[in-house]
Write a structure and sequence with these properties.
79 residues
Length: 79
C-alpha cells in the first residue's frame, strides 16, 4: 500500500466514523466512486473500530462490577 493510499483511507475513515452509522455507506459510495477496494478497506476499519469499542466497553463494565463487589465485601479495591 502506498503512503498516499493509506492517507486517503485514514482520511475517509476519520470522516466516516464521525457520521451516524446510517450515513456512512452513502458517504463512502460518493467519496470512493468506482474504487470498491478503497470502500472495502474503510468499511473494514470501521467494523474493527466498532468491535474495539464494544470490547473496551465490556471490559470497563466488568472492572466497575468487580470494584463494586469488592467494596461491598469490604476487601481491597485492587483487581
Amino acid at each position: 500500500m502506498t503512503p498516499d493510499r493509506w492517507t486517503r483511507i485514514e482520511r475517509l475513515f476519520t470522516e466516516a466514523a464521525a457520521l451516524p452509522e446510517s450515513e456512512r455507506a452513502p458517504f463512502l459510495l460518493s467519496r470512493t466512486q468506482a474504487d470498491r477496494q478503497l470502500m472495502a478497506d474503510v468499511e473494514r476499519l470501521l467494523a474493527l473500530d466498532a468491535d474495539a469499542d464494544a470490547y473496551l466497553t465490556g471490559l470497563a463494565g466488568d472492572l466497575v462490577a468487580h470494584l463494586r463487589q469488592r467494596s461491598r465485601l469490604g476487601g481491597p479495591a485492587d483487581p
